Amino acid sequence: RPGAWFGFGFCGFGQELGSGRGHQVHSPSPLRAGVDVCRVSASWSYTAFVTRGGRVELSGSASGAAGGCRDAWASEGLLLVLRAGPGPEALLQAWAPDSALRGEPLWAHNVVPEAVEEDDPGGEAQIGRLPLLPCARAYVSPRPPFYRPLAPELRARQLELGAEHALLLDAAGQVFSWGGGRHGQLGHGTLEAELEPRLLEALQGLTMAEVAAGGWHSVCVSETGDIYIWGWNESGQLALPTRNLAEDGETVAREATGLNEDGSQVKRTGRVEDGAPAPFIAVQPFPALLDLPLGSDAVKVSCGSRHTAVVTRTGELYTWGWGKYGQLGHEDTTSLDWPRRVEYFVDKQLQVKAVTCGPWNTYVYAVEKGKS
Description:
It is a single chain. This protein is mainly beta. The protein is about 0% helix and about 45% strand. A hairpin with a 6-residue loop joins strand 11 and strand 12 (about 145-150).
């Protein structure tokens, strides 16, 4: 069904976010260019929109447009554009964001999609989204070396990059992580870095359908709709109690720092009112199972720098974490350490189908609910 894109949060560089007035939008606002857009990739200061007709358009600190595109991926140092080549081939181009897509790219690379395997029930190769390349044997990093091969046995289906870490979902639904781990974002129970992709043992036996990397936190959604989340909780982005968002004026009687059974750092603060200790989670180095209100099942997830957005099977949107620029869509700038439904889409009788977060903003695709 035809739908529309909506945006909310930070737009201090004039990037398209609906009304675009001022530096922030606190409630979902329809994008002017939203009718024909099929993919959105948002960096901090600019956003790349890919239309169904294969056109990429930039909005914000970077501007410009180009045709013949299959996909685009925006980062502050690099704009990746995947252009259609002859036959199944594709041409990967890396541009400086301020180039307006004019002149010559910084570099280009021919990409041949992975061959279709005979036992592939779908009859077609799994083609991931950038920064994973269509060959599924390499990905692109915004920092040198830009082109990074992946071991063929990983059989990558999806790859997401955080500020310092990477998450990979393979064809069997297993999750691998590597890179920096100082905020627990790798999920291996330590704060150590990993140089190579390492299987997330805590999730073995569970089939994952989607992964998302925030700045320093990680989320995945299982095939059955469960959410697993880990990493840094500084702004409540894990939907676990965080000290920073504790009620102002709360009387603290005692404080002790220790480790939970699962290795997570916990700060217990006793409240004078009832004497019951309230656990505050600063870092969660193991995946934690997160329940949405009403027992809702999740199907899509995306992370900003310090916020998280999830789409449910029934087409509702829940957001939590850092909200300073309105990126949670609750008509305010409050940060939350619990999942809250974005009422705008419920009130407008809209069913959310997709969500993609920039570091400080959120883009949502929604369709009108079918008349019963």
